[in-house]
Amino acid sequence: MAPTFRFPAIILFAAAAAAVTLSGCAYLPTSGPSTKEVEQSALPAAANAIQIVEVDDAVTRRLLAQRKLYSFSEMLGDAVSVTHKVGNGDVLEVSIWEAPPATLFGVGTLDARGTVSGVRATVLPEQVVNSEGYISVPFAGRIPAAGKTLQAIEADVVKRLTGKANQPEALVRLTRNSSSSVTVVGEVTHSIRVPITPSNERLLDVLAAADGVKQPVNKTTIQVTRGRNVYSLPLDTIIRDPLQNVRMQAGDVVTAMFQPLSFTALGATGKNEEINFEAQGITLAQALARAGGLQDSRSDAKGVFIFRFEPADALKWPRQPVMSTPDGMVPVIYRIDLRNPASFFVMQSFAINNKDLLYVTNAPAVELQKFLNVVFSVAYPVLTVVQVTK
What does the alpha-carbon distance between residue 308 and residue 318 come to, in Å, rounded to a whole number? Predict the structure, then answer.
């Protein structure tokens, strides 16, 4: 009978441990890079090194200051519109009076006491200011209208009729304003063109004229296009801050947009998923709460990271040159240490951007525990076989 060789259990265990130590660490399951691996990505020696910025009060204030630059009150202003001037496409109504007895347009008579009776205005048919900017008035000819106020057009009509009509008077009324209006489109009940009147309509006025927005207020963004410039602001902010309810100007385009903002939570958080948030934005503290917080059993409180693309001039970067995308955006990893109590105040001001990625690493002890689990999963069956063969 052939002899049976029985190796001591400690030898088998050591062999299994050594094998896993040498090759198993690279194959341990994980939800992402460790804190150390994230830090190494910022080293100059790393290919495509990424900026890592420690989140503190100064960084938070700098980022918040940049956000305030885009308010409607600062970018669009709140100046009162100038006196309305007629433009091409506007529809005008011209009314003319003249004193009797000589009349071109109306009928009037003198009574026994010499007073005028039966004087009526002659209302000419409405007419559109043509592409050349003119309207036509009988006996007065072509009257230039585009670029003039209603009072200036009236004076011009009276001047042209003087000597032809008896003491003429004129009244010009704008019946349809087509050249001085604001266009409201997007997620509104009715897309509409809102005329600008002497009351100087504000942003919420033109939205009300469109019967309001169709989506929830806190999930709607308002975009104002003025000339070649485009500005956006959450509707909720406009409602809460009267300074953002600016006066409109002729030619403005107001677009109501329903664009749910979101961030992605990964790693040692309560849930790993894409999470939507309101148009007015949320802070890092709120984002962590919506992601279920940090998992006590596996998270590293010193390994909370926010992955984001920032404009090249957003901050003073830790090193130069920086890696950037073709459109000039810099990939940044913001890190916050939640073992520091002061960080809980900072995270209440640090704003989350759309498409941010929030990642929490595993604690080093968790990686050790996973390693030991692999070791024992290999060694335990071997030890069992050795004990049975004894």
Answer: 16
